[in-house]
Amino acid sequence: MDQTVNWWQDDAAPDPEDDASMPRPLRSIATVCLSGTLPDKLEAAAAAGFEGVEIFENDLLTFDGAPADIRRLCADLGLGVTLFQPFRDFEAMPEPQRARNLDRAERKFDTMAALGAEMLLVCSNVQPAAIDDPARAAADLREMAERAASHGLRLCYEALAWGRHVNRWRGAWEIVRAADHPALGLCLDSFHTLSLGDDLSALAGTVPPEKLFFVQLADAPRLQMDVLSWSRHHRLFPGQGELDVAGFTRDLLRAGYAGPLSLEVFNDEFRAAPSRRIARDGLRSLVVVEDAVGITALPPLP
Predict the structure, then answer these.
(1) Beta-ladder partners of 156
(2) Could you report the per-residue pLDDT of 83-119, keeping only the tens digit for each?
(3) 158 backbone dihedrals φ, ψ, rounded to 5°
């Protein structure tokens, strides 16, 4: 599914508020948002009206079956697997950890092939042993991207708000730019960006649209606590908190992003509630964001 052929074919990407014909992006939700077994989560997402899912590795590991079984279930439910995640603590590690990480990546690629997932989320490294060397990080990600491409896969690199050396999207972009591989792009997350007081106002003109691979949306209340705990336990759906998720999304569209809008919400109460209710609430939140940024209620791009 290629959704990267529409909004920037003109000389400049349109302002989403001025483009009455802007098509609706594919709607996706991460399985971590929902309660129950992996089949329960997938069925709830499909029943709510989502068209795609991010599959979390832990959900797959606790599933009593094979990745190919989940691929078939998703197909039966009309769901695409938009992302497999997470792949942690990869780049800029000393040997022998570096070699082990590349071997670990190869095993993930095999799983993704069976699952039918085309893209892997690579989170910025949080390990104390990570080397503060953007050139080394770029070289590592380039090698991983080359291996992914040989499997027909892509990688999206995300700056975690608590990353050891990379915690903002500009830093992640500089590494992706230096790596310069077609199978490597950015993942942008509203929580990781907005929780640090950052925004995407400079995204347009800085990052080419074709390097904007994936977007995750989450809101949150303003809390005085460490950002890791805040992220892992207190995220909310867009419109339920105090972060400017609509502004974040508007800046993305102005920069030419044309992929899925995916919810990634870590919330203890959500994971204890009925999955179908939470999935419905999540879909409503995406509709609110779409309305706020001027996306029309058209079907997703084919």
Answers:
(1) 121, 185
(2) 999 999 999 999 999 999 999 999 999 999 999 999 9
(3) -120, 135
